[in-house]
Amino acid sequence: MTQHVRGATRLAGLVALLAAGAGSASAHVKYVTPGSDPVEVAAFLSAALTDPFNLAVLGAGGVGVAVAGAAYLRFRPLPNDVRAFRRTMASYESLLPWLLRLAVGLPLVGAGFSGYFFSPAVQSSSPVFVRLFGITVGFLLLFGFGTRLVAAVGLGTYLVGLAVEPALVLAFEYVPGFLAIALVGGGRPSADHVVASMAADDRTFYSRIDPFYRRVALPFVERTRHLEAYVPAVLRVGLGLTFVYLGVAQKLMEPGDALAVVAKYDLTAVVPVAPELWVVGAGLTEALVGVLLVAGAFTRAASGVAFLLFTTTLFGLPDDPVLAHISLFGLVSALLVTGGGPLSVDRALSDRGAGDAESDGDASGRSAGA
């Protein structure tokens, strides 16, 4: 119990870091907005939310989501399919470090070759450093060499850069990504795994000359191993707060830019509703997904919706820099694998369900014995 309390305390520090970054995070719509005249927020929301049709659509959507969630919890449909899906996802957990490394390493390499610093919105005055940093850190993560140290360096560099250039909040997803990689390490396949295997074998020549493995690597891993269980929580909080910000701050609080995007891509031809309903509906949907992820409620379902949102909004926009968003796709995919993890509503419901099942079993046993 003490170990879990200690882990939760440390996680609280990580959550505070995530909240600080996401609270000021700017939205990815900045990459594609054609520019717009300012729109007064109160007037926009008043006009959108006093229209009877808009209210009916939004109300029906909210009720539908609530009913669907309650119905699932009450009736638990397709239990065998759900168990098979969860079992399959859980079988991929050994590949989670690799997935995280790909999710962060690939866009960093792309950023290096493209000449931007984490975000396409940040073009550095030191292009040589930016290119060397992105390519070097990205390739080391992909190769899985010195993974934890490289992730720590990447996180530190991002935070220092954020203090100098606030526009880096556009790439805030790197924070939970780097933190998660620092916790799980390189995994397998990785260069770290190969080196560790050679260093652990007393018969190899390398084990006699490696000064790092037994003195530094093993003690560090032993001290931090229990924190690996909190990787799903780190990812949930980081991505969830980002989604809440994207929905509330980008769309609902900056309706001018959002309306300009709707007009630019003629989105009302895709779904024939008023532009105001498009903006409010998209904002509330993203905010709801974010809240579910932060709470860890229906985590895999919310992650699936997030993946769908990324697919339709990013790949559907011809001039959006998709390469910069690979990290989002990868981190959401990681949550599909891990589920809610500890400190989540999903885990609480699962534990309660297991307790109820055990109680029912005990009661049946006592009845049979009597």
TrEMBL record:
Main localization of the protein described in the UniProt heading: membrane
Keyword Membrane: yes
Region (Disordered): 351-370
Localisation: Cell membrane
Membrane topology, as annotated: Multi-pass membrane protein
InterPro entries on file: DoxX, DoxX-like_oxidoreductase
Keywords, sorted A to Z: Cell membrane, Membrane, Transmembrane, Transmembrane helix
GO cellular component labels: plasma membrane
Tagged with keyword Membrane: yes
Membrane-crossing segments per the record: 53-75, 95-117, 129-151, 158-184, 229-248, 287-310, 322-343
The protein's name in its UniProt record: DoxX family protein
